[in-house]
Amino acid sequence: MPVHILRSRFDAVMSLIKTNWFPRALHHDFCPWANAYVYWLKRPIGWVILAFASSLLLGIYVSPQAFTASGAIAAVGIIGSLWPWLSTLGLKGQLAWSPSRCEQFDTIETTLTVTNRWPWPVWGMVLESDEGISGSSNSRNVRISLSRIPGLSKSQFRWNCSPAYRGIYPKTTPRLSTAFPFGIWSCNQPLKVTEPLVVWPRMTKLVDVPSNTGNQVLGIGGTTDRAGDDGEWIGVRAYRPGDSLRQVHWAQTARRDNLVVFERQSRSQQTVRIQLDSAAFAEDAPSVNDAMVRTFASVANHFLSHAWNTMVAIDAPWASLHPSKRTTWLDHLAGWEPTQLPEPPLSSASPTQKSNTLSILVTSAKRWDQQHHQSIYRTSPSTYVLLVDDTHAVDSARSDWSCKPSNTWSIPTGETFEDSLRTVWREICQTSLAQGVSCAS
Fold first, then answer.
1. CATH class of the domain whose range is 89-200
2. CATH no. for 271-434
């Protein structure tokens, strides 16, 4: 046969192998009904049982010498099953973190305390848990090997871990397991967790640059004529225990022969409403989901630290944040997961919202684009929308819009997410100052 014909046939076969249907055919389950009967062979103990049954049949029908192999195989199966069970029966473990709360990507110390009540050492132990105990930031299923645990001892193992996902860990019950010595059967012992590890969303420190840096009212709000400790003097009153001596009006004090102090204005606290669009969460976009929660937490924490009246909403109605409840709120946000609720309209406005209240809506670019074309979008002029996109070409994704809203900002995910969020926040503050809506400095 000519060489060029062989070469053409070879190329045809290779092109057939490289097509998509061939790999799918190799991984396709043609007999799903038989899985319940053959899946036990995935475990090593299944092959031991199969070998034992085969040797018995050989001993009965072929040669009695095969019973010797049956005995050896039975001994391996019994020892390989009882030894792991006895080893884990004498173990007691405890898992702890220091500290018990952290943000994503923070490095914390994990401590595993194992008590061995047997007089002999235990080998081949493996700690099974989730990424809350991982030493790597991108591990989902974790198996940490413990080479040897001495007999009649209390051993401690310490390592650093860096959780990459918010949540309350461990999400699965951590276990100590072993298959020593033959690896044909694995037994495990659950661990006690003294206190769960709460991983907060990583919050970006926002540093805005207002155009009028000398205006101190930007961070605390305006003042009213109600009595307080801020603003200008509005009158005098009698001294009360606890008043500062700097507020004493000495002329009036000398005239009345009693301490008289100045009365000052009180500060008018500004209000901000921040909403996280829970309907924007998608199963196929974990990076976008994580970035939306981080943006929501960063902005809310920023206003809370500057004494704004901060209102937040996700699934539940609007709730007011207070500095004393910051830890409780972050704990709730760490364990929050989107629920399968009817998809609400995309809106950050509240029925009781005042016209001078600053509103911020955090959603995804995909969700925004869908709602924009459906004409469901509605916000007030003092509303700013933060769009999180999983691509860096966020502007091109909205090139088909007939009119780009001026109060929307796009934040791409990725390694530059925090820098992008700071840049966008600076633009928001500058825009709000130009429009007469002040931001915290």
1. mainly beta
2. 3.40.50
